């Protein structure tokens, strides 16, 4: 245990993310609106040999196994995988909402605590309190001890960011599904966490709003860097947002999903959505998800110019 | 557009209200059957179809009421019964909320308490009477205790059940955002069960009026339940009818009051 945390600390200090991220944060507009005393620097996340089995009538059912993942502070990692492969479960383990049956999860070299205060979760479902207004639902995310005025300002700023300023006083049942999901995202952002865990945060959005929200997430990340774990179904979204894309899937007949592919996305954000490089990675990811890209039939070359990770 | 001078570009939204949601229709519709019953009652009792010794006419009941008013005891009956219900219901509902919260929130509380309470709930009201009179004598205490028992169980049952079934996902979200203990309770669980709790209070109040009659069966010298049994024993069927009508009216009135509160609570919290 001691050895493990020592290596984690060593690896975190060697990543260039931390100091760069801190410098970035202090120079941006939004840092002024951030609640005092709650600005958490991004923290590295380590998943070591994570496995999760759920009890079922026919004994234990292994959902995840042997997941090893080192995420640097401030990095954005996208998790892709077919439905039901355990993406949400992995995210919940990283946030201390669920305990792994094998392995350990660490944030900043320390074991993840139940409902770890260092992380904030954007759930797959909006999970808003129906009796609270949109505004007060976002305020729920504010860190404990935020001053009233600063909190109100922060909430107003976030609502503005996600385009819901006009709906601050509405109840969740009075807004659309996509708006509820944006509220949920704003609530997670209000936490200003060291680790941001987002479970398909843009799943219920139309294509256009989705693109806007992706850019928004990148802006927020640039201003207040957090380590982001992002579950998504959308290959393009993963490539647009992430430094690294992790593909979860099954290998052979052994039960339990593992990391089947890791792709480091080249280039800096925001990326050109139409770049050829991304198009090729996209093909590789779709391939990994077992989806026919219908490309080679038209004579388009599928040679690899980008080497597989690790280089 | 020209309808309201203060309106901006947006025309006022006027949804056509359906007939069944118009106030006057709800009122008239609800009064229809009572009026029909009253008319039948009048007809049957004055035409000699049923002898007056078995069914006094509405007019006789009315006269009985005027008579009691002139003796100055009519309002006393109502006041003393209302007082018993209010005190008994307040205590019973408070206990029901407290114990319901313990059983609904704590697994241990559930294991320890719910079998016993489930068994006690099954005991009918009349079964408590002899014991209460033996222990607490014939004073107010025994009557109020019976009403406490009556109003406790509906409130306890509904609150415990509602707390047990608060949306797990919402509770988990609350925890994920740093809430626990009292703060989790007041932020997530309590608001989530308010509508159900008010329904439980409504049931408890109805039960309080039912238990009142049982409480006043023995050893009372005032109250609607006393009026009911006493007039039956002395052969004053008109007063018996009066007591029944009064119990129905007063019970319905108090229920309506809680009903207004309930509608507000559902709108505010659900
Ligand atoms: N609390 C639980 N008890 C039992 N089984 C569970 C539990 N939570 C998840 N599972 C199982 O774990 C598997 C993975 O679930 P998970 O929600 O992580 O999938 P997912 O990859 O997020 O899927 P989706 O993309 O559809 O959201 C599923 O087969 C599910 O049945
Ligand atoms: Mg999921």
Automatic annotation (TrEMBL), chain A:
The reply to whether ATP-binding figures as a keyword in the UniProt entry is: yes
Keywords assigned by UniProt, alphabetized: ATP-binding, Hydrolase, Nucleotide-binding, Transport
Q: Which residues form the ABC transporter domain?
A: 45-275
Under Enzyme Commission nomenclature, its number is: 3.6.3.-
* Taxonomy, superkingdom: Bacteria
What Pfam families does UniProt report for this protein, alphabetically?
ABC_tran
Query: What does the record give under GO molecular function?
Result: ATP binding; ATP hydrolysis activity
Which residue stretches belong to region Disordered? 1-34
Q: What is this protein called?
A: Sulfonate transport system ATP-binding protein
Organism field: Agromyces terreus
Classification from the root reads:
Bacteria, Bacillati, Actinomycetota, Actinomycetes, Micrococcales
Automatic annotation (TrEMBL), chain B:
The UniProt entry lists the main location of this chain as membrane
- Which keywords does this chain's UniProt record carry? Cell membrane, Membrane, Transmembrane, Transmembrane helix, Transport
Which subcellular locations apply to this protein?
Cell membrane
* Membrane association type: Multi-pass membrane protein
All residue ranges annotated as the ABC transmembrane type-1 domain in the record:
74-259
Q: Which CDD domains match?
A: TM_PBP2 (cd06261)
- GO biological-process terms attached to the record: alkanesulfonate transmembrane transport; cellular response to sulfur starvation
> Which Gene Ontology cellular-component terms appear in the entry?
plasma membrane
* The keyword Transport appears for this protein: yes
Q: Which residues cross the membrane?
A: 24-44, 85-106, 118-138, 144-163, 184-203, 209-229, 241-261
Name of the protein this chain belongs to = Sulfonate transport system permease protein
The protein's organism comes out as Agromyces terreus
């Amino acid at each position: 245990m001691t050895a493990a945390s020592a290596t984690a600390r060593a690896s975190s200090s060697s990543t260039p993310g931390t100091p760069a991220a801190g410098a970035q944060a202090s120079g941006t507009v939004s840092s002024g609106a951030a609640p005092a005393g709650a600005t958490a620097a991004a923290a590295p996340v380590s998943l070591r040999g994570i496995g999760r089995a759920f009890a079922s009538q026919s004994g234990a059912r292994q959902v995840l196994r042997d997941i090893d993942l080192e995420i640097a502070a401030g990095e954005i990692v996208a998790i892709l995988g077919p439905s039901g492969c355990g993406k949400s479960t992995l995210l919940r383990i990283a946030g201390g909402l669920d305990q792994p049956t094998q392995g350990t999860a660490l944030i900043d070299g320390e074991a993840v605590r139940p409902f770890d205060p260092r992380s904030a979760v954007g759930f797959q479902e909006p999970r808003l309190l129906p009796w609270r207004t949109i505004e007060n639902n976002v305020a729920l995310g504010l860190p404990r001890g935020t001053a009233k005025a600063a909190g109100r300002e922060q909430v107003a700023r976030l609502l503005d960011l996600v385009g819901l300023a006009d709906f601050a006083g509405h109840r969740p049942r009075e807004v659309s599904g996509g708006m509820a999901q944006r509220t949920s995202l704003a609530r997670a952002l209000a936490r200003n966490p060291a680790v941001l865990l987002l479970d398909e945060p843009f799943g219920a959005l139309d294509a256009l709003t989705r693109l806007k929200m992706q850019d928004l997430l990148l802006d927020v990340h640039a201003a207040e860097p957090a380590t982001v774990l992002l579950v998504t179904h959308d290959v393009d979204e993963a490539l647009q947002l992430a430094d690294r894309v992790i593909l979860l899937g099954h290998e052979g007949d052994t039960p339990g999903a593992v990391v089947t592919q890791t792709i480091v996305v080249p280039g800096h954000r925001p990326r050109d959505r139409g770049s050829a490089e991304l198009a090729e990675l996209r093909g590789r990811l779709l391939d990994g998800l077992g989806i026919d890209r219908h490309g080679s039939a038209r004579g388009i070359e599928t040679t690899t110019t980008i080497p597989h990770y690790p280089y | 557009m020209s309808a309201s001078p203060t309106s901006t570009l947006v025309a006022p939204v006027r949804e056509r209200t359906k007939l069944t949601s118009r106030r006057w229709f709800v009122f008239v519709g609800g009064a229809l059957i009572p009026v029909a019953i009253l008319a039948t009652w009048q007809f049957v009792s004055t035409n000699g179809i049923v002898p007056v010794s078995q069914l006094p006419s509405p007019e006789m009941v009315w006269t009985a009421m005027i008579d009691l008013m002139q003796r100055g005891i009519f309002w006393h009956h109502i006041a003393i019964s209302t007082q018993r219900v209010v005190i008994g219901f307040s205590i019973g509902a408070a206990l029901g909320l407290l114990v319901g919260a313990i059983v609904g929130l704590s697994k241990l509380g559930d294991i320890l308490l719910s079998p016993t309470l489930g068994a006690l709930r099954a005991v009918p009201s009349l079964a408590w009477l002899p014991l209460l009179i033996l222990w607490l004598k014939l004073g107010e205490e025994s009557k109020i205790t019976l009403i406490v028992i009556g109003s406790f169980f509906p409130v306890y049952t509904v609150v415990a059940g509602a707390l047990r079934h608060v949306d797990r996902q919402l509770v988990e979200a609350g925890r994920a955002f740093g809430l626990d203990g009292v703060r989790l309770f007041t932020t997530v669980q309590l608001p989530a069960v308010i509508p159900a709790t008010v329904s439980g209070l409504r049931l408890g109040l109805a039960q309080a009026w039912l238990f009142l009659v049982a409480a006043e069966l023995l050893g009372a010298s005032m109250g609607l339940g006393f009026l009911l049994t006493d007039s039956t024993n002395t052969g004053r069927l008109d007063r018996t009818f009066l007591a029944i009508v009064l119990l129905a009216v007063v019970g319905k009135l108090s229920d309506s009051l809680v009903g207004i509160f309930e509608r507000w609570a559902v709108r505010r919290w659900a």
